[in-house]
Amino acid sequence: MNRLSRVIAAAVVGALSVAAVFGQSEKINLRMAPAPDQTVRVTMAQDMDIDVTFEGAPALPGLAGPIRMVIRTTMTMTQKVGPRKPDGSVDAAMTYDQIKTDMSMNGQSLPTGNDAGQLTNLTVTATYNRNGELVDIKGLPVAGVLTADSFKQMMGSFYGNLPAQPIGVGESVTTPVELALPLPLPGGAPMKMVSTTNTKLVSVENSAAGRSARLEASTDGKMAGDMAAPDGKSRMQFDFVLSGGGTTVMDLARGVLRSSVNTINMNGTIGMGNGAPAGLPPMRIRANVTMTMASE
Asked: Residue 20 domain-assigned?
């Protein structure tokens, strides 16, 4: 190779190296602890449409036809984040300012109990380590609707169930997600659905409100098993699948969720167990859950 050829080859290699460096996407750390010394006001709405049918069921007392339940919960919360501790962790005190639940079955309003009264003005303090992981919860009531698991799920939604590892624009990460599905059954505890969520970092944007990351996610899962029947004597078998997705905007400067809209579609059957009337087929449940959150 003559000298001119070597110079041209070196120039080509150098150009390719520079292109490779500039072509690499910036890695963004999305799961972060909320920034210290800030106050964030959060609004959330959860809408559930649930259809329950006994397909092919014989005429039985109390089984006049399909059941349609509509549940809408709205709440406002205030999160006050304290100073950063020497170990890098922060305490975030979440106060439930206002909670309202409306429920109906086949168009008729239903009482909603006193869950809202238990939570209004309640303050729960969550501790996050420097990596944005929830490591401690204080202030939960001894008994009631708000358990440690439900609070973690709510905070997971608040922070968008974000991937743990840094990702670049155009990249996707698949993470496992657990979801508690409330059932319209007397005394029936929520069922845990294990699924996977594929999250894609669509863009990183700069605006007057600060730097933000926009993500799109899709969720797929399946659940099968059994649970105690309301009569306390038999077991009910369930088999469910879920799908859905949504869009999340993460405020990178404040380390909090700026906005999020997510929808989950659920479809499955529940065998009523030995306590059910003879000949009663499995109960089919179809549910759509939409959760909308925003902070300011």
From this structure: no
In a domain, residue 5? The reply is: no
d(CA 106, CA 184): 13
Token pair belonging to 258:
């700026």
Cα 188 from Cα 162, distance rounded (Å) = 30
Cα separation, 261 vs 119, whole angstroms: 24
CATH number for position 144? 2.30.230
DSSP at 288:
E
**Is residue 155 in a domain?**
yes
9 within domain boundaries: no
Into how many domains does the chain fold? 1
57-91 residue pLDDT tens: 554 455 556 889 999 999 999 999 999 999 999 99
Please give the helix or strand (H or E) that residue 8 lies within, else none: helix 3-23
Q: What is the pLDDT of residues 218-259, one digit of tens each?
A: 989 887 777 776 666 777 788 888 899 999 998 988 888 899
Beta-bridge partners for 241? 222, 267
Does the pTM of the predicted model rise above 0.70? yes
Q: Give residue 40's domain range.
A: 25-295
- Please provide residue 25's backbone torsions phi and psi, each rounded to the nearest 5 degrees: -80, 140
Q: Are strands 283-295 and 38-53 parallel, antiparallel or unpaired?
A: antiparallel
